Every structure is written in C-alpha cells, then in structure tokens.
C-alpha cells in the first residue's frame, strides 16, 4: 500500500508536484498517468526517498521510506534501466546488489529465471538491448521479494513483444497480491495494463478511479442496437427520452443504458440482433477531463496521435 498525503515538491519556481493525495492498493496494477513533465518521476522519487517533499508526505505500508528496516524487502523499483555498470554481467550486477543490501545470494538466480535472463546471466549488461535491460532492472526490483513495486515508464522504447511481456509480468505480480504502481504517458498502454488509474496533470491530481470508471465518466457512452423492428423501436426509445441516431445497420442510442433499452425492446415485442455498449477510449477520456488546460490538451493530442497512428509502411 502506498499513501500520499498533500505531497508537494517545488524546484525553485517550478511546482513539480502540487498537493497530491492518492493511494495505491495491493493486488492490482495501478497506472500513474500524465503527460511528459506532469510530475510522475518526481512523485516516484519521493516515494523512494530519493527526493524530499517540500510539504506533505508519502508512506509505504504506513512508513516513510527512511523508516523502513529493509527497504529492498519492502519496495522494489525500476526507474532507469540503463544505470547498470556496462562491463558488469547481469549476474554480477545482481550479486553486487544482493550483497550490498544483505539479501540472500540464492535470490540472484531465482530472479534471473523469473525475468527470463538465465541464459545471458554471464554476459555484459552493456551489450543488452533495451528490452533485456528492462528485464534486468525488473530482476533488481524483485531481489528483495518486495510487496510494493514501482516502475517508471517501463515500456518506453520497447518493441511490441517487449511491451506485451512487461504487461503480462505486471499482471502476474499484481495477481500475487503485490502493490504495482506503474507510470506512463502512453494512454492506450495504460488502458490495457492498469485496472486503476491515478491521473495527474501539471503536478495536480486530476482523478483516481478504476480505468473503466475514468473512461465512462469522461466519455459519452452509447449503445449500438440492431433489430428487424428498427422503426418501432426507435420511436419507443425517443418517447422514453433517449437520443437516437441512425447507424449503418442499426441505431446508436445515447442517454440510456443497455438494460433499459432491452426492457423497452421487450415491451415493444422488438427482436434484438445486437445490443452492445460502445465505450470511449482512454484518449477521449483524458482529453475531456483535461480539456480546459490548453497546454496539456495540445500535448496529449499529439501523444494520442502518436499512439494511435498506424506506422508508415
Ligand atoms: N531536479 C529538478 N530540478 C528542477 N526541475 C525539475 C527537476 N526534476 C523535475 N523538474 C521539473 O519538474 C516537472 C516535473 O518533472 P517530472 O520529471 O517529475 O515529470 P514526469 O511526469 O515524470 O515527466 P517525464 O515523463 O517527461 O519524465 C518538470 O517541469 C521538470 O522540468
């Protein structure tokens, strides 16, 4: 469990983190979402005691980082995958970490196996691809078998296979009952990875909710309906104050949920061939919620375009 209370960090004139209050619970992946420069890394550094808050506090399992007796057994983190000494092998790097933190050396081979690096354990980390470096970073985070894990932009720059691996691995860690907090500016990625979202912009909390709620709250949900008795159904829905638009082979209904639409269809004796809620994307949700902030809006629009754009042939 991570709990931030009024967490604030000022660097000179820059208010990097502004009165953040949120909590991250065990057993699920919580996404920490916001555009570049929103304050995600600064928040993570404060959670890990690498930076002191200007005001407010953050606790892990009820304690400040500096109060933890065995920090690596409580919280593991991947902040920058490339900080490993390039001439050290993966195994030598993890052994050094285990020794300096008084962790059992048998754990080194266990974590190498967990992240699938056993076969390259003796190779120089400097020759690793980004994906392998991320795995090594994750192995380091897992050395102390901690309950709480923090990952800062873990999929940045990875190929689709690497992204999928990280996503599955995070789900697995959460399924083991751990607290998994992962930052990203990739909105689509977070929709697939996280079931809970802490969303920030300009250092401030925009929302904390389930990913589903975040999208549902911020986008207009509609329901697609197909029926052989379309006209009669359309009239009945309009009489019940739903907004109805024609679609290619049916209707798109807003202002009414699918349960109510199904009841009205039954009363009309209309057969339903389709009754499917259409959800907006996380991108739309973020745009809507942060729409009043021109700076972020532009930034996010560009990001959403990058995320969603098909790659050029
Ligand atoms: N050590 C520092 N000194 C001065 N300003 C800083 C420092 N660290 C961060 N900042 C500023 O604080 C703000 C938040 O930065 P931070 O790196 O936490 O954002 P972020 O959401 O992690 O973005 P990114 O994904 O680009 O890293 C930015 O305006 C940044 O320039």
UniProtKB/TrEMBL annotation:
List the PROSITE patterns: ABC_TRANSPORTER_1, ABC_TRANSPORTER_2
| Gene Ontology MF, one | ATP hydrolysis activity
Going by the UniProt record, its keywords in alphabetical order are: ATP-binding, Nucleotide-binding, Transport
Q: Which Gene3D superfamilies match?
A: P-loop containing nucleotide triphosphate hydrolases
Q: Please give the superkingdom of this protein's source.
A: Bacteria
Coiled coil region boundaries = none
Sorted alphabetically, which Pfam families does this protein's record hold?
Answer: ABC_tran
Asked if the record carries the keyword Nucleotide-binding, the reply is: yes
State the similarity comment.
Belongs to the ABC transporter superfamily.
Q: What is this protein called?
A: ABC transporter ATP-binding protein
The major lineage groups are: Bacteria, Bacillati, Actinomycetota, Actinomycetes, Pseudonocardiales
């Amino acid at each position: 469990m991570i709990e931030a209370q009024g967490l604030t960090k000022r660097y000179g004139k820059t208010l990097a983190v502004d009165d953040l209050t949120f909590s991250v619970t065990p057993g699920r992946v919580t996404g920490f979402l916001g555009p570049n420069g929103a304050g995600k890394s600064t928040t993570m550094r404060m959670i890990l005691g690498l930076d002191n808050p200007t005001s407010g506090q953050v606790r892990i399992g009820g304690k400040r980082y500096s109060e933890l007796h065995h920090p690596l057994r409580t919280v593991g983190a991947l902040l920058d995958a490339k900080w490993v000494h390039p001439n050290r092998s993966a195994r030598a790097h993890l052994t050094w970490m285990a020794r300096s933190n008084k962790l059992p050396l048998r754990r080194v081979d266990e974590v190498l196996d967990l992240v699938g690096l056993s076969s390259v354990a003796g190779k120089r980390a400097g020759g690793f691809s980004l994906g392998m470096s991320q795995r090594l970073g994750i192995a380091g985070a897992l050395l102390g078998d901690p309950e709480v894990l923090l990952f800062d932009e873990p999929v940045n720059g990875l190929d689709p296979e690497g992204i999928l691996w990280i996503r599955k691995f995070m789900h697995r860690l959460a399924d083991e009952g751990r607290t998994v907090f992962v930052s990203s500016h990739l909105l689509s990625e977070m929709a697939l990875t996280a079931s809970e979202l802490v969303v920030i912009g300009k250092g401030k909390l925009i929302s904390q909710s389930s990913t589903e709620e975040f999208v549902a709250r911020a986008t207009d949900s509609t329901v697609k309906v197909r029926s052989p008795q379309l006209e009669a159904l359309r009239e009945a829905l309009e009489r019940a104050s739903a907004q109805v638009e024609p679609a290619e082979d049916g209707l798109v209904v807003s202002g009414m949920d699918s349960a109510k639409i199904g009841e009205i269809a039954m009363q009309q004796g209309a057969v339903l061939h389709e009754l499917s809620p259409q959800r907006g994307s996380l991108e739309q949700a973020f745009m809507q919620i942060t729409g009043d902030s021109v700076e972020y809006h532009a930034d996010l629009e560009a990001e959403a375009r990058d995320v969603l754009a098909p790659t050029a042939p």
